[in-house]
Amino acid sequence: MTDQRILRSSAVMAAGTVVSRLSGFLRSVLLVAALGGVLRADLFSIANTLPNMVYILLAGGIFNAVLVPQLVRRIKDDLDGGDAYASRVITLSALFLGVVTILLVVVAPVLLRLYLDSAFLEPDRADHLESIVDLTRWCLPQVFFYGMFVLVGQILNARGSFGPMMWAPIANNVIAVAMLLTYLLVYGTATEETRYDALDTGPEVLLGLGSTLGIVAQLLVLLPYLRRAGFTYRPRFDFRDPELKHTLSLGVWTVLFVVVTQLAYLVVVKLASSGTAAGGEGTGYTVYSSGMLLMMVPHSVVTVSLATAVLPRLSRLAHDGELGEVGAILASTMRTALALVLPFAVLLPLLAPDVATALFGWGAGEGDLFAPTIAMFGPALVFFTVHYLMLRGFYALEQTRRVFFIQVAVSVTNVTVALALVPSRPPAETAPLLVVAYLSSYVVGSAISFWVLRRTLGGLHVRRLVRFLVRMAVVLALAAGATWVALWAMAGLGEDPHPAVAMLRAGVAGLVGGVVVLLGARTLHVREVTSLLDTVAARLSRAR
Predict the structure, then answer these.
(1) DSSP, residue by residue, 162-224
(2) Nearest-10 Cα torsion for 276, 279, 283, 288
(3) Are 471 and 530 in contact (CB under 8 A)?
(4) Helices (DSSP H) in 278-301: which residue ranges?
(5) Cα separation, 383 vs 295, whole angstroms
(6) Which of 64-68, 103-107, 294-298 has the highest mean pLDDT?
(7) Are 341 and 385 contacting, i.e. CB atoms less than 8 angstroms apart?
(8) φ and ψ at residue 405, rounded to 5 degrees
C-alpha cells in the first residue's frame, strides 16, 4: 500500500469520522445545555465513563492491538481465509463480554465507591449517590455492545473494509441527540439551581437507556457488512485451536496494559469528581471529558484513520521480517499525522475562550469553565499522537510486553503528577490540572516509545523528521501570529460574547491561521502538507 493509497483509505474513514464527531459534538453541547457543566452533568458523565473506557481500551488495545495482526495472518495463511478463526474469536468474546457485563451491573455500587470522591458518600449527597448508581446500571450493558462493535469492526478492517466502522457511530449519535432533545423538551435547560441537583427516576431512565440504545444501534449497523466482506459467522466452541491460544498468549500483556490504564484512570475520575462534589464553581469530569472529546476530533479524523489503514500492511511487513520498511512507513505516517495535528495544537490555545463559549455557553452559560481545559489539551495532542503511532509499530511486531511496560511509565507519571497538583489547588483548577498530568504522561510515553521502537527497527528517519519539524515550526509561528492579530482585530465583539458571536470570531480567526499554514507549507515545501492538499484536490476534481 503506497502513501497515496494509505491517504485514500484514510480519507474514507476520516469522512465518516468527521460526520460522527460533528454529531458527537452536538450531543456534548446538548448535554451541557440540559444538565449544566458541574455536579448534575458529572452524575451522568461518570456513570457513562466505564463503558466508554472499555470502548477506548478495546478499540485501541485488546482487539486492535492483538486481533488485527492475527486476522491478517489467518486471512493470508488459512485455506478458509480465516473464517473459522474469526468465528471462534467472536464466540469466545461474546461469552466473555456477557459475563463481564452482568458482573459489572451487580457490583456497580461497590465499583462506584472506588471512582467517586469521598464527598459523594456524605449524607447530604445520598440522593446524588443513588442517582449515579441507577444511571450506571442503565449504562453498563453498553460494555457488551461496545465490545462486539469493536470486534466486528476490526474483522471488517482486516478484510479491507474500513468505512463502516467509522460511519456506524453516527447512528449512536443520532439516538443520543434525539434523547437529549427529548430531555430538553420535557425537562428544560439547566439553571443556576438545577445544575447541582440529583436526577429523578424519569430523567435517569431517559438518559441511561437512551445512551445504551445508541450503542446497540451502532453495532447493528455493522452486521450486514460482514457478509459483504465475504465472512459468514458460525458459532464455534473449539477454543483449543493453537492459533487462538497464541492470540490469547499475546493478549495477556495487553490485558495487563488495560489493568494499568484502568487503575490510572480510576485515580483521574476520582480526582475529577472532587472538583464538583462540594458544589460551587469547580471543574470536574464533565469539563475534563468534554475537553478530551474536542482533542479527540483531530486524533480520530487523522491519526486513527491513518493508523487503521496502515496497520494491516505493517503487520504483513513485520511478519515477513522487513523491519526497515516498517520503520519507513511508520515515520511517514507520523509526519503526515503531525502535519494536521500540529496546527490544531498550536492554534487551539489561542481560540479556546471563544471555542468554549461557542460550544458550552448555551443554557446556564458555562463556557468560561471549559476554556483553560480546552487550551491545555492542544499541546497534549501532539505527544499523544506520537505515542499512539509508535504503539502501532509494537503491535505489528507483536511486542505487547514492551507496550505494557511503556504504559506503566505513562500511567505512573499521570497519577503522580495529578496527585501532586490537584488536591492542593482550588476546585476550579481541577480539570486543567488533570490535563497537565495527562500532558506530562504522554511526554514521557512518546519519548520512551519512540526511542525503543527506533532501536528495534533500526531507525525512524529522524533527520527527515527534524527537517519537517523545523519547517513546521516556522509555519506555525506565522500562523499563530496571524491568528492572534485576527482575534485582536475582532476584540470589539466583546469579552463575553453570545455563543454565536464567539463561534464566528473563532471561525474567522481559525480560518486565517489555517490559510497561513497552507501558504507557508507551500512556500517552505512541507511535503507532508502539500501531499494532503494534492490528494484532496484530486478527489474534488474527480467528483466534478
Answers:
(1) -HHHHHTHHHHHHHHHHHHHHHHHHH----TTGGGSPP-HHHHHHHHHHHHHHHHHHHHHHHH
(2) 30
(3) no
(4) 285-298
(5) 12
(6) 103-107
(7) yes
(8) -70, -35
Q: Is the pLDDT of residue 189 over 70?
A: yes
- CA separation for the pair 208, 206 (Å, rounded): 6
What is the model's pLDDT at position 310? 74
| CA separation for the pair 328, 43 (Å, rounded) | 46
Residue 412 pLDDT greater than 60, yes or no: yes
Q: What is the DSSP letter of 18?
A: H
CB atoms < 10 A from the CB of 73, how many?
A: 20
Pick from 289, 266, 262, 267: nearest CA to 416: 267
Secondary structure (DSSP) of 429-488: GHHHHHHHHHHHHHHHHHHHHHHHHHHHHT---HHHHHHHHHHHHHHHHHHHHHHHHHHH
- Residue 136: which region, alpha, beta or left (left: phi > 0; alpha: psi -120 to 50)? alpha
Read off the DSSP letter of residue 38: S
Q: Give which of 41, 8, 9 is closest to 27, Cα–Cα.
A: 41
CA distance 252 to 401: 9
Sign of the Cα pseudo-torsion (407, 270, 54, 306, in order):
negative
DSSP symbol at 32: H
Task: Choose among 369, 337, 338: nearest CA to 353.
Answer: 369
What's the residue count for the chain?
544
Which cell numbers in the block locate residue 373? Answer: 481545559
Per-residue pLDDT tens over the stretch 301-328? 777 667 767 777 787 887 777 888 888 8
Contact 333, 393 (CB under 8 A): no
Region class of 506: left (phi > 0), else alpha (psi between -120 and 50), else beta: alpha
Q: What is the pLDDT of residue 181?
A: 94
CA distance 309 to 68: 11
Q: Which helix (H) or strand (E) holds 236?
A: none
Whole-angstrom CA distances from 245 to 68, 89, 248, 257, 543 are 15, 11, 5, 19, 47
Angle, vertex CA 150, rays to CA 145 and CA 152, nearest 5: 90
- Segment 417-455, tens digit of pLDDT: 999 999 989 988 999 999 999 999 999 999 999 999 999
Q: How far is C-alpha 312 from the geometric centre of its chain's CA atoms?
A: 21
Q: Nearest 10 degrees: CA dihedral of 512, 523, 341, 533?
A: 90
Please report, for residues 162, 291, 314, 330, the alpha-carbon distance to residue 334 in angstroms, rounded to integers and kept in the order given. Answer: 20, 23, 13, 6
Would you say the C-alpha torsion 178, 183, 186, 188 has a positive or negative sign? negative
Instruction: Give 453's contacts (C-beta < 8 A, 6+ positions apart).
Output: 327, 330, 390, 393, 394, 460
Residue 543 has pLDDT above 50, yes or no: no
384 vs 394: CA distance, rounded Å: 16
Which of 226 and 439 is assigned the larger pLDDT?
439
